């Protein structure tokens, strides 16, 4: 609830430490004594907020539903935002003066901004008054924070009642999860005598409790145990109360009362429970376990007695589920559409004899089921509500159109949000803010890992964890934690098996948007019924109808991400002029030809995304954006950057290139961008793509020791030594792309040493004497390799066949010979293989046992290949084969004489590159989705 406040307070602590006062140089503050008063006022506010931070730090979910507290906290949040504005304005004014040379020019700037400094001083006075007022209001209305009491008891009782309602459900209503129930039943009935711990894992609302309760009430299972207990842990409980609950279910009431258990200490309760279970075969269901540490208290009490006892845990967290014995975890997924539809009809049309949806309601019923996205909790609740409604189209269409509002406000449905919000309320403040941020993307949107991590960093949502770990790496830890908590789902993985995009369930998204809007964290325009944006909004995601958007001139917006690409550049200029203190500006895919004129004056900007626009020129004035961390100019027409770009010393990621051939088959498929000036000033750079090589630049690169990803174009042989000397000074370099200056440029890498941490390497250019350098056999961590235009004379496969971590291999015009051979045991982890445009290649031999986990095979433009390689038949893991520009004879054999070779491959695609529609569908759109997620083109 107070998480937005925590974010601001952390920013205050960073911005107003001892270093902050030094920013006000002597030359600035001597303009007027008011600036001295300003510094004093800022220090006063810092002291007040340090105390307030500790006070608000006690806030927990115990205050959920306390309307008085919510109203008070809303005022606190508003004050926090006002302080953030003061800090940003302060930094803005000092940044303006910092780059001015000459005594008289500086004095003129100071005089010009004197009114602004006085205004800030006045705002500080207002904040101090408001803080005093907040303290008075807290005392006047008896507002308490973090004190356990009636609200926490009510929450605990409410959670128990929700659990009990699932537990008491009718088994005949169970739909789906048949295999999971069968597996759990088998585990419980197995004759193994050791105590087994098993777990059911899944997000809230998937039916964990319903499945567990159906098993718990199964008489065949009950008869197998001497005693059984069902206990719900909840997020807030006392260990002693939990142990008493277990004992109360095990003992009859008279014995329980006589035993004195109600007054026993924790240690005594554990001993009593141990004694009771010592000679019994027991079944214990631990429902809704939130913390792995909870098991530390219980495992001592639940004795291991070798009588075949069982413990079943339900949880939303993967680390808790890992308490189970190896191989005894059931992870629930959403219901397939057919099962979701069946469950919905069972509930919504239960009064009809056949329980079949009437034809006039089917369109709306299908939309409602789709909105529930296979979540049983929502399907049952919404279906049950509709079962009492008239079977009229208007009634059903109305509920569908208001479903998000109904879920938040209708008492018959709001408990769905309560169940989903339990996970949200369990998040620490830093994770909660990041999770709320994920909800701002459109429904069903696949958010790319790298993009969301860089946005979080630019927004200030990520905490530093010391030297040696980048903020982006910390952000990736956040993503992993959110998936472990079953809040985000991994939507796609790259060829390395690493999560590349994530998705949020629509109903979870709805719950988050309500919280984000209430806490003034962000607003999504064009979605969720938002029709206007007030001046207090901090982040604005515009999905649709941007032309009708009006934003207050005194806007507090710090982030604007534009999904609606159908707006004129004049609209962007107008609206951006209101965002002087903005941190994130994303205009990706916008129809603009030049950088909006206001951008160079956005001195607080940390993230600027102009990818896929028609921008050609980057103004020198962009060098004023000294806070910029990310500059994304991918797929623009920029070929030259101004030398002033090297003033951006906080820059972490710089992308600037155009892709001329999406199939990447022409030699100069990527543009090469010139960066004049002293690039070694950009010491925080982690990504640089793609720059044109010159000796000075390549020498300076050695100063960029934080580099992780680098792409060099127009490479000459006489630059190799300088480049490799610089690369050797980049210990974290994991991605490297090198393109030779031309097809005729020969690169001699014979004596070059391998880069030990390289995971991705794309080398395009003729290799000296047509020989593969020895270093290719020494890339221990290499996972992806693309060799391009190498003109090799000898079969190169053997040279890197034993690279144990290689999962992606692309050979494009790399080999001038006639045969490639893949021996048994080679490429044990290879998932994707592409063989492209090798004109002389007429034979591919694949022995049984080679590439035993290959998933995707691409064969492109192999004009001399007439028959389908028979060894493909041995690769049983192949799921996809893509054939491009193959000769007719090859394709005829594929569909006739050689069809048995590929009959086990479920997805075989073929097309010709001259078919522009096929290229767009099968290459361009997947390429954009890979780079940017399910893109803007689907929203336009």
UniProtKB/TrEMBL annotation:
Residues 557-882 form the Disease resistance R13L4/SHOC-2-like LRR domain. Residues 440-510 form the Disease resistance protein winged helix domain. One of its GO terms (molecular function) is ADP binding. InterPro entries: Apaf_helical, Disease_R_plants, LRR_dom_sf, LRR_R13L4/SHOC2-like, NB-ARC, P-loop_NTPase, Rx_N, WH-like_DNA-bd_sf. Residues 181-351 form the NB-ARC domain. Belongs to the disease resistance NB-LRR family. It holds the Pfam family WHD_DRP. The keyword Nucleotide-binding applies. One of its GO terms (biological process) is innate immune response-activating signaling pathway. Residues 1-19 form the signal peptide. This is Disease resistance protein RPM1. Keywords: Coiled coil, Leucine-rich repeat, Nucleotide-binding, Plant defense, Repeat, Signal. Coiled coil: none annotated. Residues 20-98 form the Disease resistance N-terminal domain. SUPFAM superfamilies: L domain-like, P-loop containing nucleoside triphosphate hydrolases.
């Amino acid at each position: 609830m107070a998480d937005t406040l925590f974010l601001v307070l952390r920013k205050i602590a960073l911005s107003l430490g001892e270093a902050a006062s030094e920013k006000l140089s002597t030359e600035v503050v001597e303009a007027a004594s008011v600036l001295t008063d300003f510094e004093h006022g800022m220090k006063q506010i810092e002291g007040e907020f340090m105390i307030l931070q500790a006070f608000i730090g006690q806030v927990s979910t115990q205050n959920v539903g306390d309307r008085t507290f919510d109203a008070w906290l809303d005022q606190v949040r508003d004050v926090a935002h006002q302080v953030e504005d003061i800090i940003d304005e302060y930094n803005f004014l000092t940044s303006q003066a910092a780059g001015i040379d000459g005594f008289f020019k500086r004095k003129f700037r100071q005089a010009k901004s004197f009114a602004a400094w006085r205004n800030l001083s006045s705002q500080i006075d207002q904040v101090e008054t408001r803080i005093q007022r907040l303290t008075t209001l807290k005392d006047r209305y008896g507002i308490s924070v973090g004190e356990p009491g009636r609200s926490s008891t009510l929450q605990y009782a409410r959670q128990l009642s929700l659990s009990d309602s699932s537990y008491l459900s009718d088994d005949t209503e169970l739909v789906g999860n048949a295999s999971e129930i069968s597996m759990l039943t088998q585990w419980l009935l197995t004759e193994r005598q050791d105590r087994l711990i098993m777990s059911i894992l899944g997000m809230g609302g998937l039916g964990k409790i319903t499945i567990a309760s159906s098993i718990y009430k199964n008489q065949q299972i009950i008869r197998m145990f001497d005693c059984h207990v069902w206990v719900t842990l909840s997020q807030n409980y006392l260990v002693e109360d939990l142990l008493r609950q277990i004992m109360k279910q095990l003992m009859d009431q008279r014995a329980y009362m006589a035993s004195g258990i109600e007054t026993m200490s924790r240690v005594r309760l554990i001993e009593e429970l141990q004694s009771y279970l010592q000679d019994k075969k027991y079944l214990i269901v631990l429902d809704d376990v939130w913390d792995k540490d909870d098991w530390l208290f219980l495992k001592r009490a639940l004795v291991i007695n070798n009588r075949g006892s069982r413990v079943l845990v339900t949880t939303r967290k993967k680390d808790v589920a890992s308490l189970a014995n190896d191989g005894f975890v059931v992870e629930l997924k959403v219901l397939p559409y057919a099962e979701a539809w069946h469950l919905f009809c069972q509930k919504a049309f239960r009064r009809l004899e056949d329980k079949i949806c009437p034809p006039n309601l089917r369109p709306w019923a299908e939309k409602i089921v789709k909105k529930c996205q296979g979540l049983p909790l929502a399907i049952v609740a919404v279906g049950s509500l509709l079962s009492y409604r008239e079977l009229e189209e208007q009634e059903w269409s109305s509920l569908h159109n208001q479903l998000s509002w109904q879920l938040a406000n209708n008492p018959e449905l709001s408990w769905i949000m309560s169940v989903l919000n339990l996970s949200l309320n369990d998040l620490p403040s830093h994770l909660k803010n990041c999770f709320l941020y994920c909800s701002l993307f459109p429904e069903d949107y696949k958010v790319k890992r790298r993009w969301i991590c860089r946005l979080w960093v630019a927004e200030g949502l990520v905490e530093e964890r010391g030297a040696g770990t980048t903020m982006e790496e910390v952000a990736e830890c956040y993503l992993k934690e959110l998936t472990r908590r079953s809040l985000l789902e991994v939507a796609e993985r790259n060829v390395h098996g690493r999560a590349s995009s994530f998705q949020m369930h629509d109903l979870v998204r709805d719950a988050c948007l309500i919280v984000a809007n209430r806490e003034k964290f962000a607003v999504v325009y064009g979605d969720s019924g938002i029709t206007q944006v007030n001046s207090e909004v901090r982040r604005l995601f515009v999905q649709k109808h941007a032309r009708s958007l009006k934003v207050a001139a005194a806007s507090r917006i710090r982030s604007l991400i534009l999904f609606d690409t159908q707006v004129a550049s004049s609209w962007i200029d107008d609206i951006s002029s209101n965002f002087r203190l903005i941190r994130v500006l994303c205009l990706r895919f916008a129809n603009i030809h030049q950088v909006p004129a206001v951008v160079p004056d956005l001195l607080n900007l940390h993230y600027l995304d102009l990818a896929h626009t028609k921008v050609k020129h980057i103004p020198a004035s962009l060098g004023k954006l000294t806070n910029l961390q990310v500059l994304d100019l991918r797929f623009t027409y920029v070929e030259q950057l101004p030398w002033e770009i090297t003033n951006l010393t906080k820059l972490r990621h710089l992308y600037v290139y155009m892709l001329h051939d999406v199939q990447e088959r022409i030699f100069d498929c990527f543009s090469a961008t010139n960066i004049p000036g002293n690039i070694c000033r950009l010491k925080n750079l982690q990504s640089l793509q793609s720059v044109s090589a010159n000796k000075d630049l390549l020498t300076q690169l050695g100063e960029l020791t934080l580099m992780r990803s680098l792409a060099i174009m127009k490479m000459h042989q006489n630059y190799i030594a300088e480049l490799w000397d610089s690369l050797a000074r980049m210990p974290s370099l994991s991605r490297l792309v090198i393109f030779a200056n031309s097809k005729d440029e020969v690169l001699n890498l014979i004596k070059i040493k391998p880069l030990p941490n390289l995971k991705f390497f794309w080398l395009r250019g003729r290799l000296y004497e047509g020989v593969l350098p020895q270093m290719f056999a020494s890339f221990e961590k290499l996972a992806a390799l693309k060799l391009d235009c190498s003109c090799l004379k000898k079969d190169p496969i053997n040279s890197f066949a034993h690279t144990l971590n290689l999962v992606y291999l692309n050979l494009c015009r790399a080999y001038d010979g006639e045969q490639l051979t893949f021996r048994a045991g080679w490429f044990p982890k290879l998932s994707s293989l592409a063989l492209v445009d090798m004109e002389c290649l007429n034979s591919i031999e694949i022995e049984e046992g080679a590439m035993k986990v290959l998933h995707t095979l691409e064969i492109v433009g192999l004009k001399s290949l007439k028959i389908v390689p028979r060894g493909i038949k041995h690769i049983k893991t192949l799921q996809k084969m893509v054939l491009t520009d193959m000769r007719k004879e090859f394709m005829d054999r594929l569909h006739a004489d050689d069809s048995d070779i590929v009959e086990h491959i479920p997805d075989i695609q073929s097309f010709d590159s001259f078919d522009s529609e096929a290229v767009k569908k099968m290459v361009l759109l997947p390429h954009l989705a890979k780079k940017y997620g399910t893109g803007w083109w689907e929203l336009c």
